Amino acid sequence: MPWALSVPLLPEESLSSWLVRAALRQGCDPLSLTGAIWPTWRIWTRDIDREIPLVRMRPLVNASGISSAEFQKAGMRDDCEKVAGYSLLETRTWPWLLALGSRNRTRHGGQQICALCLAEDSAPYLRRHWRFAWHTGCRFHGVQLIDECPVCKAPIEPHRLSAEDQHLAQCSRCHENFRKAVCTSPLPEAFSFQVLADRVLQGDRAAFGNTSITLADWFSMASFLVGVMRRASRRPTSPLAGALLSLGIPVVNNRMPISGLAFELLPISERSALLTAVERLMSIGVEEAFRTFVAFNVKTSALFDPRKSPPVALLPMLSRLSHHPHGPHRRRVQPDHRPASERAVRASWARLKRRMKAEPTS
Ligand SMILES: [Zn+2]
Ligand SMILES: [Zn+2]
């Protein structure tokens, strides 16, 4: 049965945003609305912004009067596959798409908002691009995005709002109005990276030194560089950190992540710190950076995990570095009662804090 009140998809609106708005507009909870459309499919335990699978589309098209082509366009799959360069499996983390870290209906994070965009909307709604992991600022307002409630620090989970809440610009736990949030400036270099990455996503190829590489190769190189920055920040006295610091790339500071979580799971502050470092390296030039690595005697093993293959575009430069820093690997025997290092303790504390953000299942 079609809904009494039609709810069009707004420009650049994400699928979860539209589903929540559609529910509130019909005067019901998001969970009740989706339960009525798909009685046997629990959509809020998955990342519904990615896509609505074609086999699930019919009841939604019938109820909303919106075509399946429009829903497909609002999903993230097409953009994410351009970025990844291959077809993405439903069960995996998608590169450069913020992960929700869902457990049942609770989440750890993964949704960002611009408070000023929401304040200007006549019907507040979430934009697709706020889900990209390289987005840290609003391109219209020049402010930093927010990825948690400023008051209670809960992740932004509009699907947990209820019918009485009426609009989605609020915290589902403490009902803080996000439109009143105090905005800060994004880190300028992280924001420049965002502008650059957005431009790359619009085209097919991206400039790389004197040549051009495919869009997917560009994002894979950027991921590789994020990994390099994380490795350098873990070993601030290593030749790699020394080389990067000599180039003025800020790899040693307290905003760098210590948790070891995938980039797509990191909070905005840590992603901003990493992207700042990557942007600075890219603006110096990857060639120049590798010349410095050679001068500081950085080994390939310092840059990446040898079990993973590095981006093709970087192979010629990687081949200039030397391999095998310590000779053949010997197994280190570690006593069971060895005290954990301070770093290991801080990393597990950061992971625990993230888990604690999600409430017990309701
Ligand atoms: Zn904005
Ligand atoms: Zn809150």
The small-molecule ligands in this entry are:
zinc ion
Helix content: 25-40%
H/E element order: HHHHHHHEEHHHHHHH
Count helical runs. Answer: 14
Q: Rg to the nearest angstrom?
A: 22 Å
Q: Report the major sheet.
A: 2 strands, antiparallel
Overall 3D shape: globular
Task: Classify the secondary structure makeup into a structural class.
Answer: mainly alpha
Ranges with pLDDT <50 over ≥5 residues? 327-331
Straight-line N-to-C gap: 30 Å
Q: Major sheet: order of its strands? A: 1-2
Taken together, the total number of domains comes to: 2
For the residues shown, what is the average pLDDT? 91
Secondary structure blueprint with pairings:
Elements: H1 15-25, H2 30-37, H3 57-64, H4 68-74, H5 77-84, H6 115-120, H7 188-202, E1 205-208, E2 211-214, H8 215-234, H9 239-246, H10 268-284, H11 286-295, H12 300-303, H13 315-318, H14 342-357
Helix pairs in contact: 1-2, 7-10, 8-10, 9-11, 10-11
Task: Describe the structure in your own words.
Residues 320-344 are annotated as: Disordered. Helices cover 39% and strands 2% of the residues. It is mainly α and 362 residues long. The protein has two domains: 15-180, no CATH class; 188-318, no CATH class. A two-stranded antiparallel sheet has the order 1-2. Helix 7 (188-202) packs across helix 10 and helix 8 crosses helix 10. The longest helix is centred in the middle third of the chain and has 20 residues, at 215-234. The two termini are 30 Å apart. It binds zinc ion (2 copies).
